[in-house]
Amino acid sequence: MERAQERVSTSGVNGAAEPPGGSKRTGAGVTTGIALELLVHGVGGARPEKMLNDPRIVRVTGDDTAAVFRRVDDAEAEDERADPHRAPVREAYVWCNLTSGNGTRALWLLLLPFMVVNLAHWMRPTARNRQGTVRFYGLLVRLAGLSLTVLLVAAACEVALDLTAWQCAGTRACAEAHSWLGFLSPTESGGGWWSAPGRRLALAAVVPAALTGLLWFLSRRTWSAYESQQPMAHAPEPADESIRTALGRPGFWYGRRLVARLRAAHTAAGLLTVAAALGSAAARHDREPGGPEALATLAGLLYAALIAGAVAVVWVVCRRGRSERHLDRELDARLVRLLPGGALALLLLTAVYAGWSRPGWQSAGRLPGDTTFGALTLLQGVIVLVLAVVAQLLHRAHPDPRAAMRGLGGPAVTTLACALGGVMSGGVSQRVADWLDGTGGTIEGPPVLLTWQASVIPAVLLVVLGLVGWLARRTLQLRRAELAAVEQDYEDGSGEPMDAGRTRRIASMRAMAALTDRAPRIVGITSTVTLLLGAAALIGAQATGDTPGEASHGAYAVVEGAAETAQALGSWLIGFGFLLFVTWGRRAYKDPAARRTIGILWDVGTFWPRASHPFAPPCYAERAVPDLTWRMATWTEATGGRLVISGHSQGSVLAAAAAWQLKPAVRARVALLTYGSPLERLYGRWFPAHFGPAALTSLHHDVACWRNLYRLTDPIGGPVHLPGDCGPEVDRAPLRDPLSYGRNEKHPLPSPILGHSDYQADPAFVEERENLLRRLQPGGTLPGPRPGTQESSGRSSE
């Protein structure tokens, strides 16, 4: 990142910059009275030069991943004499490299289902005095995450073991078409050592085992780079404070112990899945009449060990959740080493067992993949249904009218995560099978269930297209309603005619921005349809044992034609999606601009800690929130000046989370300015237990003052909607967008419609920042007490 120069600060207590020589301390604290505005950018990132509106910048603290910058002219602002009229020092915290840095971020696309299921953990409804139900909710989501790991590894086993080593290498026509498989083929290699079915499977098992090892490595590496930063230690808040939100607890942003336990469990689960897939084919042969008794006995012992390992994995996943009330610095070192180590040892023993010589053993048909994928699909469906019941119990205990889908957001997102995992697994299997099969007929292909699941994709897309049509119709209705409102908002009394085209564009932007509030309905309908069609695919596969096209033979012509069309179209769509996925990942690996675009997805999806899946992309907030907390706390301690933390979009969420982590005395000396903020519109609705009305109300009363800016054309930001008398004190009336309807003296050129961007270009931004600075008492003293739950009458709405 370009910068004019880099300044290394002298470290003081807890890493704080020591007060410069010009700063004078007294018994009451530092008397510089200098003001600081700490800017935090939103999704997609921003360059510090643009944030500070100056090409000459200096890095105050941080590294190439996340850092705080200043203008060069403000580099030594603390050394200047106290001047209450001095413009506030502006600092920019840049964190975009946490989500869109180097090319390896493109690999995170493989972890998309894990990220989605991790979000479901944090979507639970608000609950009080229901700790058992809350723990059960978290347990169910962790089990759903574990099933996704097994599903991904099982898909890799299907590709490497079943399609490649078992079917293609064991079929002469397929092996001839792929010469690189010649040494595995009994006919091509002339009965070579590797051509035995068990040895072929043992060699192919390296692929899913390596995938499991890669997931373990990425999880461990990203944890070391992102989530090993310790938050600022402070005593827990009083019990009534912790009820409002858990984001203020000392250990919330430090899930070191849980991530290590889950990483060990999921790694062991992946290795055990490979061992089960490898040993099942050999065990099936050994149990046939006349099979070797010694190997059959060994198969029984291996199965018992596999079951014991699976029980241990489930026990580890279920036994312990997050520890947030204190910094949990301990690691279950023995468990973290022994569980994956034992699974790896068992896999090696299974490979030796499978590779043992068995004269006369030949590969035919498919490996028992239908049973595995069917059991996983059934298990995921049961978890989703039970999770929905638990979520409803929590929601009904403390109803929140603003909560998305009446508290069912978590189960709906879990459904979509499982469906996404199934589509990715089926897509890989279908594409590899088509590539190996060539013109068709040489191998039997993937399990029947995967074909059924692909066949229901067209039906899901039809529902999605219907919802898109409904959104388009709703947009037109909203635009017609907004036309009159736009004319009224920009009526200046001059009598000049309004521009119909300009009015339509503004009304259209407002209408499209309002569609964000329809997202819960879209997600709810899509997840419900996906769950029902997934159940139908499972029933159809288990009942017929054939693909939809084959199962419909002999039925009515319409039914047979629809089944064959759905099967062909589903296979084509899943193949197209797989190719698009690979192309997008390859482009993101090479193109920084494309990587930043994908980074927007990570900005939203990886804000939360890895509570249910250790292989999800890392939580950048476990680095960003401690960064902001340390910066605010140490700066106020070193200078005693006034501080406004100014957050745009996702930056406002980071700012609020950092403010909750401050000590109460420091929090009461900080002002909060948010703009284009999704705090209530998205986070408050989808994550009510952590950003619901009670949590935002507590934040409003704990900080010195808070103002929120938004536009009606902004599809992300919105009002905070605090109940009662809190709303007018936080939310300013919607900003005009565009600033000017037509040309005038102040705006001789047409003003653009800004939507979610460039809030600082609005004069209201500077006005509100100055108001916040005036409301903060200079000299480092705390604001005056607030009577009851309200501030004094000096706290105006404008």
UniProtKB/TrEMBL annotation:
TM regions (residue ranges): 136-156, 201-218, 264-283, 295-317, 338-356, 376-395, 407-429, 449-472, 522-545, 565-585
Cross-referenced InterPro entries: AB_hydrolase_fold
Keywords: Membrane, Transmembrane, Transmembrane helix
Record flagged with keyword Transmembrane: yes
SUPFAM superfamilies in UniProt: alpha/beta-Hydrolases (SSF53474)
This protein's record includes keyword Transmembrane: yes
Region feature (Disordered): 1-28, 729-798
Name this polypeptide is given: Integral membrane protein
Organism: Streptomyces lacrimifluminis
Taxonomic lineage from the root: Bacteria, Bacillati, Actinomycetota, Actinomycetes, Kitasatosporales
